[in-house]
Predict the structure.
Amino acid sequence: MNLDELYQEVILDHYKRPRGVGLREPYEGESHQVNPTCGDEITLRVHVEGGTVADVSYENVGCSISKASASVLYELVKGASVEDSLERLGEFTELMNSKGQGEGDEETLEDAVAFAGVSKYPMRVKCALLGWMAFKDALVRAEAAVPTPGGGAEQ
Amino acid sequence: MNLDELYQEVILDHYKRPRGVGLREPYEGESHQVNPTCGDEITLRVHVEGGTVADVSYENVGCSISKASASVLYELVKGASVEDSLERLGEFTELMNSKGQGEGDEETLEDAVAFAGVSKYPMRVKCALLGWMAFKDALVRAEAAVPTPGGGAEQ
Amino acid sequence: MEAASKLDVESIRADFPILRRKIGDKPLAYLDSAATSQKPAQVTDAMRRFTDHSNANISRSVHTLASEATEAYEGARAKVADFIGAISHDEVVFTKNSTESINLVAYAFQNAVAERGADPRFVLGPGDEVVVTEMEHHANLVPWQQLCLRTGATLRWIGITDTGRLDLEHLDEVINERTKVVSFVHVANLLGTVNPTSQIVARAKEVGALVGLDSSQAVPHLPVDVTELGVDFIAFTGHKMLGPTGIGVLWAKAELLDAMPPFLTGGSMIETVTMERTTFAKAPAKFEAGTPPVAEAVGLAAAVDYLAALGMDNVRAHEKELAAYMLERLETVDGLTVIGPRVPIGRGATVSFELDGVHPHDVGQVLDSEGVAVRVGHHCAKPTCVRFGVTATTRASGYVYTTTEEIDRLVSALEQVRKVFA
Amino acid sequence: MEAASKLDVESIRADFPILRRKIGDKPLAYLDSAATSQKPAQVTDAMRRFTDHSNANISRSVHTLASEATEAYEGARAKVADFIGAISHDEVVFTKNSTESINLVAYAFQNAVAERGADPRFVLGPGDEVVVTEMEHHANLVPWQQLCLRTGATLRWIGITDTGRLDLEHLDEVINERTKVVSFVHVANLLGTVNPTSQIVARAKEVGALVGLDSSQAVPHLPVDVTELGVDFIAFTGHKMLGPTGIGVLWAKAELLDAMPPFLTGGSMIETVTMERTTFAKAPAKFEAGTPPVAEAVGLAAAVDYLAALGMDNVRAHEKELAAYMLERLETVDGLTVIGPRVPIGRGATVSFELDGVHPHDVGQVLDSEGVAVRVGHHCAKPTCVRFGVTATTRASGYVYTTTEEIDRLVSALEQVRKVFA
Ligand SMILES: Cc1ncc(COP(=O)(O)O)c(C=O)c1O
Ligand SMILES: Cc1ncc(COP(=O)(O)O)c(C=O)c1O
């Protein structure tokens, strides 16, 4: 096993200094996701303004991969159009399901390409995707203006 | 497999010409036994008079082993004291559980020693014991004068 | 229209070590595959390789063995799902056998009654009806009987014709607006009948009932495509399809699995647990409490590979030929009456029969002394026995490794039976 | 008083092919036996021999293979029964895992509610109480929670002290006249605590409650005698005691099994069946619906033989030494906190810990890169995690084949973890 492949410097850096952490107002959609096999959790909010992801804010408990992944997500989608952010979501999900075959496009995925190595570790793919699943869900809720359970009181 | 060992002439004879078959009055105890693995059944009555098994009467559906065994039972215990009949029951059960090791005492078990070979066939031991289990149960009911379900209307 | 058998039975037989076994001094003629099939070396080898190389508990750790074990287990799920034409791999739930699979569905109804906010399709009570047939294996009868007993619902059933087919004359009355679920046998294990499904499925759908199949004797022997069948669930079992004991399958539509309350509860099926309250994982995990049969799933996957390589159309064609040969040859035996369809149409290579004046136990015993292994008894289908006025039958059943020569041996051994009990 | 370890660990290791496995270029150090144990060649060989020589369905036919299979299966039952000191072999019910065993008992209560004439000990309703502990595996918590939810009974529990022991101070209040059943973990899978049983059992008996044990982590590691324990039932599982997946055990007093309503229904558990009504066979058959895990029972019997030959006293002594060594060595790791008893008294060779600032997933991953396999996560004991204020732990667990050298490798790998996440 090549540890460095999994724990790239970029990942360790995002893990140790996560960007955008904290739950902020305003927001239109919130999602709470749990990884049932390990108990890791994330609560994530999106604030959409005029077709743009104006903010993504979150609190999470988890391993380096899941924390770094949420931090990278924040950097990638904050300020992007909703459409672009969904494209990133698709690309990242595809990369994670590539079983070590994918490399990811550095142009679009930026730091997230560091997760390419994670895709070789099926038990860790879920960790890397947790925040992204929350983002997807929160976005759906924001668009539908579905009132979220607990009205943000969760976590 | 030695078929003759299992299907001794005595057994085939009792099977083809079963003794004592039919349900008769009077009786004090009746038992209905089913072999759940094959569906074979017996209804058996005992009539006890002054400490003696005055009659054993039965109807049954089953294979050669179970039918012959009921017939042999009838011959052995009819007219015997209750005490002796229970002794035969014990001896026969022991013989059936002997896994081919026992021979049985011809003095006491008479034709029933022909079942010694059956004890090598674990799947058939239950067949050989079905009637005897019914006898044991019917005797208990007779002694306790427990009213039998269906009052003899069963079968 | 049917292709002739393309199975190379001799080379198939070489894969099954047990077929070289002798019974006394006679070679084994195993005609009891409907009870359980034999396993090719490919299945036992795969399990052994897994145990000696990758054994670990699944879904629970990040170490290499756990990751290999999880991939093997989930890979088996995918294989089984593809084999039966499931739309999603997650529609396959691993259980311990068919019996558990059917109980799981029956308990979904029972548990829904005690659950607030349960899906109304599963809430059962007096006035509601459950429909089975008279030719069920006990596994697809007793759970529904118990369910009705416990909820006050009524059990109804479709009868059997004298030739061993489902009697569909009163179908529209038996399945009606009160019917909440119809569960019926796909291929009958005593009669050998292959039931046509479309009419019953259509009627069930018409009245808004859920409809499922006990496919325990179907998946091993026919091409089965759950999407084509149009049913809501099917149950089958590993050990009858060249796989190991200890594993069964429930396939159900994803939407239905989501709506069903959990059955067995414990580890691996939860989302989160506090002392006060538990929320549950999504299906299939929701229905797989505790450590699953991991090595058995690996074995089942190997069995599916084996069957897929043979081609289920070829398996079916081979068994049609076998059935025809069995029926033809058995008819030559004096005093023998086949119970079930007597023509090799809409039936499998499983044939039950009576031999005049000889109890099946005795038939089976004499056959065994000739090396011929058949099953005798009620075959867990007592109501079918009652329908045909017998307490037990003798049943010979073939599979991919069965030869016509073995049928010939069965027939001559039956002559031997007649001699002993003349 | 305790004998020093008499296990010849090197010769034991030779029986386990998987222990020769490499992870990358590192030899495997398997420290995850609490999740599932590895299997010696004796177990896999016995299963293979059975499959290739005697495979058949049981209790159903008179042919030679069926007879051999039935004897093998019932022989396994006898072996397991003797291993745990059961009075009668018929007190052993084979299930698919511990989880099913516990659900079986919980459903006896649920089903008794819907049954006329059910034994009053099993009839549960509002006002009645069920008692577990805060250190349960989900398998012995969620089924009771669901039972309470469905019947209106109340779940209560015994707490945990800071040192990972059961807090028995309020025992007489938690277990009281309203208590109908107490089910508690014998050896805790996250904390490693070996619970003293006599006080709880005595209190349960005093108030007339049934009392059982989740012995999943006990039977593999300690001498267990159900008669001495004085309990009504225990549950355990094959794959944690050198046996295969796909088989578990419920032991219960014969009298209790007779009183319990059936759970899974179908073939092999009936006495007689009509379309209208079913009567049931006696236990253990009553609780073994469908084709049981026959080959798995053969494997479990071989595992029991293996453990019995080692001697459970020797196994226990070996693991006491291991536990002491693990605790001592782990204490040398900077920033490591053991969760659970910190002294090697009343505990097994299963040690959970936290490593300051590093998530267990990351710990496990780095350990794996060193060939050291441990389990990370909540270990299906979320309430225990909450009690100790963590979401997950890293857990190392040993068994009969575990060496002190493997513990040393764990400790140096932990230093490696600290380096990566410094
Ligand atoms: C204490 C305890 N109880 C129950 C179980 C469940 O066992 P199984 O998964 O075999 O059902 C386990 C193991 O996972 C355990 O450690
Ligand atoms: C038609 C049918 N249904 C259900 C079953 C039960 O399968 P299992 O015993 O594997 O649960 C069988 C086989 O015994 C069967 O033939």
